[in-house]
Design a protein that fits this description.
- The structure is a single chain.
- This protein is an alpha/beta fold and 157 residues long.
- It has two domains: 4-75, Transcription elongation factor, GreA/GreB, N-terminal domain (Helix Hairpins, Orthogonal Bundle); 77-155, Roll (Chitinase A, domain 3).
- Helices cover 39% and strands 26% of the residues.
- It contains three helices and seven strands, in the order βααββββαββ.
- The chain has helices at residues 8-37, 46-70, 124-129; strands at residues 4-7, 72-75, 90-95, 101-107, 118-120, 137-142, 145-155.
- The strands form two sheets. Strands 5-4-3-7-6 form a five-stranded mixed sheet.
- β3 and β4 form a beta hairpin.
- α1 runs antiparallel to α2 (46-70).
- The chain starts with a strand and ends with a strand.
Length: 157
């Protein structure tokens, strides 16, 4: 069984979601099912079928969260340092074509959220960054063609 790298904050967020899904969402869904069941004929009861589907989705996510948490290898970023990019690093890049600056933190797959600046360690850009230092240039294959970036700053926050 492979371990899944995860930051302390990412682990805490998954634990919180699991807690919410088991202690709040699950009982609410069970209540919705019993309410819908009270309305009579289940074969034509849309509320019942919707509640059962919601239950299935919730239970599936609970199983996924339990699996992720069981395989988690928690890495405390505050104890990391160095001159090269590795898991947990916050990297500021500049696009060599547009001079646009972007900042990304390299995190585990389960906590990645590109819109909030957290990219998966297994993403193409993160794989290109790993092992590089400030001032290095990288090239990343993107859907619109290859993009060039220069590393401006590496921090472990």
């Amino acid at each position: 069984m492979d371990k899944i790298p995860m930051t302390v904050a990412g682990h805490a967020a998954l634990v919180e979601e699991l807690q919410r899904r088991t202690s709040q969402d699950r009982p609410a869904i069970i209540e919705a099912i019993s309410e819908a069941r009270a309305h009579g004929d289940l074969s034509e009861n849309a509320e019942y079928h919707a509640a059962k589907e919601q239950q299935s989705l919730n239970e599936g996510r609970i199983m996924e969260l339990e699996s992720l948490l069981a395989m988690a290898e928690i890495i405390d970023i505050s104890k990391l340092s160095g001159d090269t990019v590795k898991f947990g690093a916050t990297v500021t890049l500049v696009d060599e074509d547009t001079d646009e600056e972007k900042t990304y933190q390299i995190v585990g797959d389960a906590e990645a959220d590109a819109s909030n600046g957290r990219i998966s360690v297994s993403s193409p850009i993160a794989r290109a960054l790993i092992g590089k230092a400030e001032g290095d240039s990288i090239e990343v294959s993107a859907p619109g063609g290859a993009r060039g970036y220069e590393i401006l700053k590496i921090a472990f926050v």
